[in-house]
């Protein structure tokens, strides 16, 4: 039975705010939010926010017409919620290929040959300091999906390389994504898979927990050099413009929070939200990175709110950004027609498994990534060019949605934002349109 029926959200937003935030792929219809297991609509949103407006007389025509609209919407919802065949084969193929590409390449930042790393552009033979940790990071997530420790173990060499680099120069400020990576290396214990830990740990380490201590020490350098969290946020906003939200969400706020610099992280959240007008849709290098910035911020803010480390006001802004992000989803299921942006959107949507609107959008995003993997190959995400970093990020996003979540900062601390249920498997839908590869923007990359 229908107890409450929402007015068309796009019409409501247009009347109230002057613009329509309904997803591009579903203009004019509101995705049902309070869908329980018996498929009875109980309420418009589980969130503690402004209630979805009740249907007003001017939007009603005939009862039968409204019933027909509801039945069509319900049918579409059911079609997307039915679990399909999990793409574990694609993930294993992609992870295997990605792992084999780890090797020795010329570091164009230092001029030295470095091993246990990935190229920036696949096939170029070149690596860079800022992409090494993030290119290794998400192989950790595949181990949980497959039960095969080789993927996670394959990242330890990169982790030890980073540790050696940061230990050699006590003043060297880390890339925040490297800190995030080391924290996940810390959370993965090889001994649980019957593997001799000492074979993989860096010099002088007695357990994998040492990576947590080191990650905290490295991020403390950031705090030491930028004691005012707002100043740290400003230096990204002023220079990186629409990409600043991604820089801060993935490379500053999340590692600061996970290394227990909570007030510092909250300060950066407050600043980036306060200055949204200064970075949203402001082109960086001629491209608009707003969607990937929204995704990165949504992810960390929802995680922090679930852990009780940030307030309701910031959380409400994250939900507002989520509404805007959902409205930007393309007909083919992607965001910006781009694998990297779509991957971060999936990571953001994974933070609330109880939200059916987010789940539906994620299913379609997964479908896009699966379809894109076949252009022109089956086990990677080619622009062209093909970026090892992007392959890693997509592997991580798909792994998060197709397995119980990896211990990425809160599973080990009893403050998990994740549900214990398995995410929806993607449907193998055909993608009807994929944008021309030449129009895709350059990949987002970490910066100091």
Compose a concise summary of this entry.
With 448 residues, the chain is mainly α.
Which secondary structure elements does this structure contain, and how are they paired or packed?
Layout: H1 9-17, H2 63-81, H3 88-100, E1 103-107, E2 113-117, E3 126-127, H4 132-137, H5 139-146, H6 150-153, H7 156-168, H8 176-187, H9 210-225, H10 229-240, H11 244-258, H12 262-274, H13 276-279, H14 290-306, H15 312-327, H16 339-349, H17 356-372, H18 388-401
Assembly category: single chain
Shape: globular
Number of helices: 18
Radius of gyration over C-alpha positions, nearest whole angstrom: 22 Å
Strand content: under 5%
The neighbouring-strand order within the major sheet is: 2-1-3
Terminal residue distance:
54 Å
Total beta strand runs: 3
Mean pLDDT: 76
Series of secondary-structure elements, N-terminal to C-terminal: HHHEEEHHHHHHHHHHHHHHH
The percentage helix is: 40-55%
Sketch the major β-sheet: 3 strands, mixed
Structural class: mainly alpha
Notes on the structure:
- This protein is mainly α.
- The protein contains 18 helices and three strands.
- A three-stranded mixed beta sheet has the order 2-1-3.
- Helix 3 (88-100) crosses helix 5 (139-146) and helix 16 packs antiparallel against helix 17.
- The longest helix has 19 residues, at 63-81.
- 45% of the residues are buried.
Considering the chains and any ligands shown, give keywords for the structure.
18 helices, 448 residues, mainly alpha, 3-stranded mixed beta sheet
């Amino acid at each position: 039975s229908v107890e409450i029926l929402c007015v068309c959200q796009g019409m409501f937003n247009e009347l109230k705010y002057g613009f329509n935030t309904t997803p591009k792929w579903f203009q004019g219809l509101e995705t049902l939010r309070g869908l329980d297991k018996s498929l009875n609509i109980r309420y418009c949103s589980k969130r503690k926010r402004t209630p979805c407006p009740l249907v007003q007389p001017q939007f009603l025509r005939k009862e039968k017409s409204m019933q027909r609209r509801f039945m069509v919407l319900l049918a579409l919802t059911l079609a997307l919620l039915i679990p399909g065949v999990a793409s574990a084969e694609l993930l294993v193929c992609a992870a295997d290929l990605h792992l084999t590409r780890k090797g020795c390449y010329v570091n164009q930042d230092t001029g030295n040959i470095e091993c246990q790393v990935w190229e920036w552009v696949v096939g170029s033979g070149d690596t860079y300091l800022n992409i090494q940790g993030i290119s290794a990071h998400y192989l950790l997530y595949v181990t949980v999906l497959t039960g095969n420790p080789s993927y996670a173990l394959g990242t330890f060499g990169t982790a030890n390389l980073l540790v050696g680099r940061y230990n050699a120069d006590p003043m060297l400020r880390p890339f925040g994504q490297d800190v995030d990576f080391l924290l996940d290396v810390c959370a993965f214990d090889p001994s649980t898979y019957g593997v001799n830990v000492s074979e993989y740990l860096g010099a002088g380490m007695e357990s994998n927990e040492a990576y947590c201590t080191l990650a905290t020490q490295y991020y403390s350098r950031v705090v030491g050099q930028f004691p005012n969290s707002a100043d740290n946020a400003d230096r990204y906003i002023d220079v990186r413009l629409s990409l600043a939200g991604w820089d801060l969400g993935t490379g500053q706020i999340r590692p600061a929070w996970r290394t227990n610099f909570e007030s510092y992280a909250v300060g950066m959240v407050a600043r980036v939200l306060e200055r949204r007008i200064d970075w949203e849709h402001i082109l960086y290098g001629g491209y608009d990175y707003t969607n990937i910035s929204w995704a990165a911020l949504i992810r960390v803010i929802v995680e922090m709110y679930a852990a009780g480390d940030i307030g309701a006001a910031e959380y409400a802004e994250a939900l507002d950004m989520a509404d805007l992000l959902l409205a930007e989803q393309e007909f083919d299921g992607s965001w910006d027609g781009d694998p990297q942006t779509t991957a971060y959107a999936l990571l953001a949507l994974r933070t609330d498994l109880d939200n059916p609107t987010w789940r539906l959008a994620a299913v379609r995003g997964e479908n896009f990534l699966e379809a894109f993997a076949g252009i022109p190959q089956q086990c990677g995400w080619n622009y062209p060019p093909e970026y090892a970093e992007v392959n890693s990020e997509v592997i991580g996003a798909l792994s998060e949605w197709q397995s119980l979540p990896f211990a990425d900062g809160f599973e080990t601390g009893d403050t998990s934002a994740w549900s214990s249920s398995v995410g929806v498997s993607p449907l193998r839908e055909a993608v009807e349109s994929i944008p021309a590869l030449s129009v895709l923007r350059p990949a987002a990359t970490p910066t100091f």
